[in-house]
From TrEMBL, chain A:
Name of the protein this chain belongs to: Transketolase
Family statement: Belongs to the transketolase family.
Classification via Gene3D superfamilies: 3.40.50.970
Requisite cofactors: thiamine diphosphate
Family matches, as InterPro entries: THDP-binding, Transketolase_N
Entries under Pfam families matching the protein: Transketolase_N
Keyword Ligase: no
Keyword Transcription annotated: no
Domain Transketolase N-terminal: 17-260
SUPFAM superfamilies on file: Thiamin diphosphate-binding fold (THDP-binding)
Automatic annotation (TrEMBL), chain B:
Lineage per the UniProt record: Bacteria, Pseudomonadati, Pseudomonadota, Alphaproteobacteria, Hyphomicrobiales
Annotated SUPFAM superfamilies: Thiamin diphosphate-binding fold (THDP-binding), TK C-terminal domain-like
Name by which UniProt lists this protein: Transketolase family protein
Record-linked CDD domains: TPP_PYR_DXS_TK_like (cd07033)
Domain Transketolase-like pyrimidine-binding positions: 12-177
Amino acid sequence: MLKNDTVQTIREKALWMRRRAFKMVYDAQLGHPGGDFSAIDIIATLYFGVMRYDATKPALESRDRFIMSKGHATGALYTALCAAGYYPEDWLDTYMQPNSRLNGHPNRNYLPGVETNTGPLGHGLPVGLGIAIAAQISEQAHRTFVLTGDGELQEGSNWEAAMTAGHRKVENLTLIVDRNRLQQGMGTEETNGLDPLDEKFRAFGWEALMVDGHDIGALLDVLATPRMGRGRPLCVIANTVKGKGVSFMENKASWHHGVPNAEQYGIALEELV
Amino acid sequence: MAAPAKKQEGFHDCRDAWARTLEDLAARDPRIVAVVNDSVGSSKLGGFQKAFPERLVNVGIAEQNMVGVGAGLANGGKIPFVSAAACFLTARALEQIKADIAYARFNVKLVGQSSGVAYGELGPTHHSIEDFAWLRPLDAVTVIVPSDAWETAEAVKWAAAHEGPVYLRLSRMPVPDLDIKNRIFRHGKAELVRDGSDVTVIGCGTTVHLARQAAEKLQGEGISARVLNMATLNPLDEEALAAAAGDTGAIVTVEEANIRGGLGGAVAEYTAGHQPVPVERVGFPGFVVTGSVDFLFEHYGITADGIAAAARRALARKR
């Protein structure tokens, strides 16, 4: 497929994901829409432009793996897995309802396509590292992608894993940081600053790149490039906007786990076209 | 490093059995990998590293990462044995054990080395006497505490063949072979070490041989004590507990652990809800005083005499 066609396809998927995720949050009156919307373009790019998988065979050994380390952003993950064909859309209607497979944080045993349980922060990168090492041991070619929030990098377990990944030259591992610069309460730099983030990863033996996390063409370029032979894990710092796509949500920490009223829901659907 | 416990004839460090068994299994099954936190030596995995260098992942001094890597290796089709000092493995990475291993039901084997108070003089930061209480409620995790070298080897083999998370709690303190005839390792089943009718003494790990010594002392006083080896703490053998309560009417538990939430806690939970009988718990009441492992066992009554005294107390409480 020509790149422009791929970009257009991903854009359409991302739009559907935003609308569908916001409906889930509105219906449940629970969720994390701000972080869903900052991550959706990245996740849509991975599922519809980068990763190799077969949704009818979720356990296929050769599949590329995606780990949503910022496990609270289930609106982004669940809509992506649905759009990728892992389960029917009516499952999304059960979001956070009693006995639903769609918990507020993902569980691999309930939902096909979920690689590991997340929710508590700082768990995704170590697990992704383990998957990538397993592939190295078995000389398999699949890639592992981990998406973390930026505030999440305040958890020390990420740096334990970053150190090991750099030391072992785990080139089949790619970390994407959803750099929206906001955490639950306020800005990351006001809380426990992360900059200069790219230099930190380079110092740990990684290749680090900055990209506009809503520019699908740019995301495709950095994520779809093969890693074999690079000799280093890759960190993609994706500069994003929390609440991206809805005017009253953009760059507002309060939308970390804010939920819309009927009026806000209507405005958002008018904007998300 | 803590002073080694007294070397005695016929006593074995179960870590030797663990390492030898893992190497044997790894030679037959390429899925078996080891993950360590700079603990190749203390886990006795030097031979494993030599034989299978690409299958030993040393993440350095980073326990949260170590457990997460274990989960990822399982996702990638491996059978990881994550081995580290029990105190750091269970305490420092408890949330990873809960979320990444137990809740996710990943096929990871956690191996806690030098558990209990094996690091005697190094103090409570290096003791692992809370691990039973932390891991027992994680219902997906099978918790096994081998009592001697034979049982250690059998438990490692069982864990490798079992699909699901396992916590193996090993010591570095030499223990005698229990030398029970026609032994078969059955996970989740208490092992009858010796039968008796007046009281049941239940041990696990390093305390089972002491429980048997206590029963021999009690026999001299005309008290008939049953001795059980409760090598699996989760799932607990409730059938054996019901029989112990029903047949003997009094129970003593003995463990190298905090009596709150450990074997004693588990037995008390069960009996309180099903068949209330006196339960005397021998173990540690909390953080321990300074001393060698031998001193600590003596000081807290984890000895044949201490167990026998607890049995007399339990008998006195019988109606």
